[in-house]
Give the backbone structure.
Amino acid sequence: MAQVNKTDSNVTGLRYCVETALGVAGSTWFPLDPNSYSDFGGTFTKVARNPINNKRSRFKGVLTDLDSAGGFNIDLTQTNIQDLFQGFAFAPFVEKAKLFPTAVTSGTHYTVAASTGILANDLIFASGFAIAANNGLKLVTSVTGTTVVCAGLTAEASPPAGAKIVRVGHQFASGDCQINAAPALPTITTTTKNLTQLGLVPGELIYIGGDSAPTIFGPATNNGWCRVRSAAANSVVLDKASGVMVTDAGATKTIQIFFGRTLKNQEGAGIVRTTYQLERTLGASDDALPAQIQSEYIVGAVPSEMTMAIDTADKIMVDMSFMGTDYETRTGVVGVKAGARPALGSAKAFNTSTHVTRIRMGLCSDTNEYVDAMFAYVTEARLTINNNITMNKAVGTLGSFDATAGTFEVGGNVTAYFQNVSALQALRDNSDVTLDVCVVKDNAGFAFDLPLLALDDGRLNVELNQAVTIPLGLMAADGADVHPNLSHTVMFSFYDYLPDAAEA
């Protein structure tokens, strides 16, 4: 084999695994497709000997320290980095229900180990099945201990690995879902359905209404995005609605609502640290077999900082950085670390032109579900998370033996077209401000909500022949000052299915 004397970037690859313990690799290496890298690898510190001598020379020193870090920029898709968000939040997702059927019986049901979490009239989204009829949005007609009954299925004795059904919403019985707009904040009310069974989390954004007339409220402002304030057996209090909601009995309507899995920063025992290993393959060396892939590893990688960038006429991109306890390399002869290596999915990136369906900043309110936005259009937005990680070093250890997480710091910035002085007044008054963003593509998406913000900066950009813009710095805080149920700094929601109407 001819000597090539170099390695090109197009032969490299990136994967990660979840560690089973600090420094111990897990069994599955998930693929990533980064746009670029930052500070990936090990940095070695060496201290030279510099004794007094008649040669006026320093002597070769010794290795004294190792710093390990890895960072990358990546397009956000529906499937590629969701699980890594858990690491940055130091918390797990709250799933409504996700089951993996072992068979499909023609026309009737999915067979599951246990139907826990799925109820009659739930909306589920099925994916990964070999037969097309078994995929897509389904209405659950009934459940037993091991079956989820839906219409229109085709027999499939052995679904592919990874085939799943996910609880994505609920369709209420005719007339059983109403809007009561009389209280300070509007409320979903029911007569028979126990709303606590839906598993709604205070602070999550839900979508009200389906794609057909019977599944939506008559008044348009009763449909669309809103946030859950609280949930009880027969009432769910809403805020941050898409419009001013009005009382509606929902007569003859089989109203649909859609929800996702949620992720928020926790407190106390709810704080869960996840560590990873990052693997970057480096191709085969000269005169090696093509399969003899070299690799390097960030070991004991703790999620450090994350930035989500939403810029005009671009893709939504995320920068993620990790700090590790150790750094390792492996030759092609040794090969990469053991474990399953799933193929990279083909999900498309979210754009910032048609997929961002809502970005709204306004004053917090306990009496108005629809607060006027401080601006109509945004030129750029940044959401940042900093876990303020400090690596722990000690005598007798090269690298770090552990890491300490500091304050969960959430912030960012927004630059908007200046509309009125409300944002400037909010700066002066140090008003309580909230921000949410909803992104939808191909009947799926994600959203995040910051229940409480303080604003800074705010100096207007006024230039010749240009629109006036206002840059605002965002300093997120615990939302408990707004409402006890909003005791978090950020809430993410990921939706496996949303109706066509949500993309409008």
About this structure: The chain has two helices and 31 strands. The chain has three domains: 9-90+275-330, 97-259, 356-503. The mean pLDDT is 95. Residues 356-503 form a domain with the Pnp Oxidase; Chain A fold (CATH 2.30.110).
